[in-house]
Specification:
With 54 residues, this protein is mostly beta strands. Helix content is 0%, strand content 48%. One of its GO terms (cellular component) is actin cytoskeleton.
Length: 54
């Protein structure tokens, strides 16, 4: 990892996510006052995602 980066873990609502959604790709949008950044995620479980923060 480079300076300033961190790993963000996101916990999704179990009611919103079905286990049949195995092939779904998730992305996170980081939005600031002047910039936006889209990051792909790594699916850890059917309700947990991880992404590297910019």
């Amino acid at each position: 990892m480079f300076f300033g980066e961190c790993v963000l873990t996101v916990q999704l609502c179990e009611e919103e996510c079905g286990e049949e959604e195995e092939d779904v790709e998730f992305y996170l949008l980081f939005a600031g006052s002047t910039q936006r950044h889209v990051s792909s995620t790594l699916k850890i479980s059917h309700v947990t995602l991880q992404a590297v923060c910019p």
